[in-house]
Please model this.
Amino acid sequence: MKKKAIPSKLYMTLILVFLYAPIVVMTVFSFNATTSTYVFSGFTTHWYKEIFSNATAVQALKNTIVLAVCTAAATTVLGVLASVGLFTSKNKLYKSTMMSVTNLPMMNPEIVTGVSMMLLFVFAGYLVKKSNVLGFWTLLIAHITFSLPYVILNVMPKLRQFDKHVYEAAVDLGCRPARAFFKVVMPEIFSGIITGCVMSFTLSLDDFIISYFTNGPSYQTLPIYIFSMTKKRVKPDMYALSTLMFVSILVLLILMNIAQSRAEKKEKGDAA
Model:
């Protein structure tokens, strides 16, 4: 048993090193005093200050945050409504078909989704005789499309765990259906809603491929701006920008895991 444990630990260590060593190197060199990409000459926060003094980078950051917040809000509302509708549906064929259709954006390659949505938006703009149709709204629709399944997949298991008789009892006792939903159902599925919301926000925040095909010249997101910087000589300010994105997503994931663990402890406490 001990002989098997050593290779497994070594294997996990190699995987972690392979995955996170590049991020560690990038973070270290974002504090490099010079523009060298292989010699660390000293510690400085100059590159972080330079990023925030760059008006184009700051505007791209604002655009990305606004887009991610709008995407998270829209997908959360639509995802909850879709989950409740699918859960209450008694037609098994309809339910299984809709779940399969919902999962398609996750299984479909992102480049296929991006190109197809770009063609759809351009064709729609041609029908209404509008040029330069690509922009914020096309980005928002595209991000909602590929983020929505993640909200549904996080809310549906919580609905399956919920006892429908509690909701029916609340309605029988005189509570209106909408009020009964918010008072009885929402607290039970709230952890799934939060998880889906954070996931949709994170996916929108760092998406590049679909955004690359569906954005216009008037609205540039941060991943696209970083990509445009790589066409020139790579400087540590790009490392700083990438590090900030990584840290932001890492903090969101940690908060999501904490919320999930607290919800699970609460469920175990209520069950006990």
